[in-house]
């Protein structure tokens, strides 16, 4: 995926928020995990609840190390009673596969499907009409964090609604040889190609974490604030550290910044000259018309509306801590029938 296409980042961002944008996410990794103990094995490996996940539903969670740090964040899809698909970040594909394959039961199979699976994300309020015109089965019953089998050009594909932009849309998993046709068909119907730059702004406006920025093997998963991704009802690898309150000395916070100048990853956050945190991501937000950032802030200093200074090179940026998401008008959870 390029940083941007010919239209530019702002136009691509606008297409996702108000029309339809298409993202080439074929770099993501997909694993098939199957067998009579697959659910139990994944329950032990992942921070989210897997055993009670319904068929045709998916769930976001963390793959943690023994210290409670995040090896990767991923989405688990339940295909059947004994079959799952895991969608992982490209940067962690090989390490994730080895970690999982080395810790499952001997009768659980783990297969890397990434080389033969294409993934394309179609996002935005006009995306349901585009997808519906290309696929055989109706989409009117597809709910948030659910998926279904469908058909494109008489070939079976999987289409889900998880979203990384905050807008209603889909993730399409198809045989690799169909990817270019699907991409071109979406463009013909009005979808705008979008790159990493727009994708990063869109996810930042929603306060979503990115591995290597907000999430890392050295950062306790609980500090991310994504409580819905961490089960309180089971033991998983690293859970003793994740649930240890003494290790939650910082929390991920949003910062509204005065003006257009953006903070950068690694910039220091201060209050009255005292360092209280570190920026993980920053950008100019077109929907907010000013800069925004995510940062890990000391718990005692992370109150909403607290004024902070960000030391960015030779510049000092002034901002206020705010609750994410920054953008609150996203359609991602909307009734799909309103957009078909």
Which labels suit this protein?
single chain; alpha+beta; Gyrase A, domain 2; Elongation Factor Tu (Ef-tu), domain 3; 2 domains; 6-stranded antiparallel β-barrel; 17 strands; 33% strand
Q: What is the gist of this entry?
A:
With 340 residues, this protein is of the alpha+beta class. The chain has seven helices and 17 strands.
Tell me about this structure.
This protein has 340 residues and is an alpha+beta fold. It folds into 2 domains: 9-202, Gyrase A, domain 2; 249-329, Aminomethyltransferase beta-barrel domains (Elongation Factor Tu (Ef-tu), domain 3), CATH 2.40.30.110. 17% of the residues lie in helices and 33% in strands. It contains 7 helices and 17 strands. It is globular, with a radius of gyration of 20 Å.
Break the fold down into its secondary structure elements and pairings.
Layout lengths: L8 H10 L2 E4 L4 E6 L3 H8 L12 E7 L5 E9 L4 E6 L4 H9 L7 E4 L4 E7 L3 H8 L12 E6 L2 E6 L8 E7 L3 H10 L3 E3 L1 H10 L33 H4 L7 E8 L10 E4 L2 E12 L4 E9 L8 E6 L2 E8 L18
Parallel strand pairs: 1-11
Antiparallel strand pairs: 1-7, 2-5, 2-6, 3-4, 4-5, 7-10, 8-9, 9-10, 12-15, 12-17, 13-14, 13-16, 14-15, 16-17
Helix pairs in contact: 1-6
